[in-house]
Design a protein that fits this description.
By secondary structure, the chain is of the alpha/beta class. It has helices at residues 2-12, 17-26, 37-46, 51-63, 67-80, 89-100, 104-123, 132-149, 170-188, 198-222, 227-247, 251-267, 281-291, 295-305, 313-325, 329-342, 353-362, 414-425, 449-455, 464-489, 506-517, 538-550, 567-578, 601-604, 606-621, and strands at 372-381, 384-393, 399-405, 430-434, 494-504, 523-527, 555-560, 583-588. It has an eight-stranded mixed β-sheet, with helices on both faces. α23 (567-578) links the parallel β7 (555-560) and β8. 52% of the residues are buried.
């Protein structure tokens, strides 16, 4: 009815501000928003000095996933306030749009302003234009959106606890706990503690927050809370319960809970703006499905998710990955190209931008470079048939070989392997990216460390957890690495006397262990080995230092200054030298603004270390093909 009335007025008065306003409100859901696009464009011109009018146009833009327009509209709205800077509804939408564009630093700045405003309002130092409850609510919603969309699990923001006394709505009070619990769940799923007992503390935090949310929603139901806020709160409760199952390595039960949360959310009357559940449940379901190798199901979830939260950048990234996994390369390339456009102004350290660039420029060609060939390799580790990806020069002859080891969470993503594989293969290296047992292309072949510990009944609460993890690292995991080295040496296009190993994080640890175990290697380049646990895992640190003193393979250790701990770069090369070997360490400038951002040095900024590593390998291996 509102749309029809507005249309009638606009036919007679095409620039009537009231009719434009009501038309936008009438159609600002994803299924109808296209009918309001012309009105949004006109309204922005009709009322340039009206802050609310400028913001209103973004109701249409956000429903269509048009992030450039969302950002521009809310910047205009903020400027239209004049000297009276108001933080709240429009600021929330602005920061959300910036997060979709990968402009995380700018979103953080707006969030900081919102939090300052909220604190000043609470202290009575600043008049609350719309009341304290409004300032508190938007501080919660902006923080929650920032942590979850930027995946800032280790940021102080992810541990921020809000006073919810003045929050009126059950969904906002729930969001204040949900994002903290969700971030804790992601930290708890790491294979190692960053500090002693950190994963167990995060598991307990998830449990306590879920108990609190559950009690609150039960009280709200009994009190007859409004359907939409209560439904969103209940959906978030289900989503956090799903994270409990994901932490326990129970993907199917986690998926069942996420789908139930999605169905509940989708059945509610549509609420415009950023997702009321903070994280769309089907988007999270797709993420889990991709991780367990079910891309077709992931794609189906993402298609349904578009109906509630169109054009979200993470959802589009997951869609591109699912299409790629299904062999639909042209469709994946189109998705990556569009994402590269969305992220063209992203932060330099934005981790997903390089994947989008890679997918948009390389996939349609079908090959990375005319001089480089790409193969999938099966190799034996004991009775296991493991797999990996190999990049090789097309030039005839025998080449030096390089084995590149992934971290603890997963095997190499297609984009990371491709970027590094091209880099080294174009310099003449046969470059092998093996997936260790139970991971990536080797899924189903053997057990990961996490799965093995679970089978043995050892939990992070047990005193034996750390010691047994270290033992598996130095046995089954190292066996897989040695098998990969043997496999590349056996290739007819590889000179077996010129093989080196490199790796990141957990792969950096294995690089150091392999260098000690196999003195016939020509070089070892370890990126951020044990950086996440150097400060507290004394048995692992002592083992690495002892091995380093026995290592006769030339070693290069590399980190960024804002890695979790830079002790490995300072101490491991010194230990190699103390034992009579050749050890070199180098620290690069910080990547990003946060501690831990630098841990991704190897994959985020190869331009920083490229010349150093290639020169080191050239010196140690004389990387020239032999006839």
């Amino acid at each position: 009815m509102a749309e029809a009335v507005s249309d009638t007025v606009l036919r007679a008065h095409p620039r009537h501000p009231g009719a434009l306003h009501y038309l936008i409100h009438a159609v600002d859901d994803p299924s109808s928003a296209a009918r309001g696009l012309d009105a949004a464009r006109v309204y922005g011109e009709v009322a340039p000095a009206a802050a609310h009018a400028q913001h209103m146009t973004s109701h249409i833009f956000i429903a269509l996933g048009q992030w450039d327009d969302v950002v521009r509209a809310n910047l205009r709205a903020y400027a239209a306030n004049g000297p009276e800077r108001v933080f709240g509804h429009g600021t929330q939408w602005l920061a959300y749009g910036l997060l979709q564009q990968g402009r995380v630093g700018e979103a953080q700045a707006w969030l900081d302003s919102m939090l300052t405003y909220q604190r000043d309002v609470a202290a009575g130092a600043t008049p609350a234009v719309r009341g304290r409850a409004d300032a508190d609510a938007h501080a919660v919603l902006m923080t929650a959106a920032h942590v979850i969309n930027a995946e800032a699990w280790d940021s102080p923001l992810a541990r921020m606890r809000f006073d919810t006394t003045h929050l009126r709505s059950i969904d906002t009070r729930t969001a204040a706990d949900f994002f903290v619990g969700y971030a804790a769940a992601q930290r708890a799923r790491r294979p190692v503690d960053l500090t002693p007992g950190s994963r167990e503390a995060d598991r307990l935090l998830v449990d306590s927050l879920l108990e609190r949310i559950s009690a609150r929603t039960a009280r709200a139901r009994a009190a007859g809370a409004r359907a939409v806020p209560l439904g969103e709160a209940e959906a978030m409760e289900r989503m956090l319960r799903a994270e409990q199952h994901a932490m326990a390595n129970q993907p199917d039960s986690a998926l069942a809970l996420l789908r139930a949360a999605a169905e509940q959310w989708e059945a509610l009357a549509f609420a415009y703006g950023p997702p009321g559940t903070v994280k769309p449940p089907r988007e999270r379901a797709a993420e889990i499905l991709l991780a367990v190798g079910r891309p077709a199901e992931a794609l189906a979830e993402l298609e349904q998710a578009e109906g509630m939260a169109p054009g979200r950048s993470l959802a589009r990234l997951y869609r591109a990955r699912a299409l790629l996994a299904l062999g639909r390369r042209d469709e994946a390339a189109r998705e990556y190209r569009e994402l590269a456009g969305v992220w063209q102004g992203a932060d330099v350290t934005f981790p997903r931008r390089e994947e989008a660039r890679w997918g948009s420029t390389l996939l349609p060609a079908g090959n990375v470079d005319a001089s480089v060939a790409l193969d999938t390799v099966v190799y034996a580790s004991g009775e296991l048939a493991l797999r990996g990806t190999l990049y090789r020069p097309r030039a005839a002859g025998r080449h030096p070989g390089l084995v590149v080891l992934h971290g603890s969470a997963t095997c190499w993503s297609p984009s990371s392997a491709d970027i590094l594989g091209r880099l080294f293969a174009m310099q003449g290296y046969v470059t092998f990216f093996p997936c260790r047992r139970g991971m990536g292309l080797s899924a189903g072949e053997g057990l990961t460390i996490r799965e093995q510990l679970q089978r043995e009944g050892i939990t992070p609460r047990d005193s034996a957890f750390g010691m047994r993890s270290n033992e598996l690292l130095a046995t089954t995991q190292l066996e897989d690495v040695r098998a990969a080295i043997a496999a590349i040496r056996a290739r007819p296009d590889v000179d077996p006397s010129r093989v080196a190993v490199t790796g990141i994080s957990y792969g950096g640890i294995l690089t150091m262990l392999a260098a000690e175990a196999d003195p016939t290697l020509r070089a070892a380049v370890a990126f951020a080995p044990a950086a996440m646990n150097w400060g507290w895992n004394a048995p692992l640190r002592d083992r690495l230092l002892a091995d380093a003193r026995r290592t006769r393979v030339p070693v290069l250790v590399l980190q960024a200054e804002n890695d979790w701990h830079v002790g490995p770069t300072r101490e491991l090369p010194a230990a190699v030298r103390a034992g009579g070997g050749e050890g070199t360490g180098k620290l690069y400038p910080a990547i990003g603004a946060n501690v831990g951002d630098g841990h991704g040095l190897m994959v985020l900024t190869p331009e920083l270390w490229r010349e150093d590593v290639l020169e080191f390998l050239e010196q140690q291996m004389k990387a020239r093909s032999r006839p």
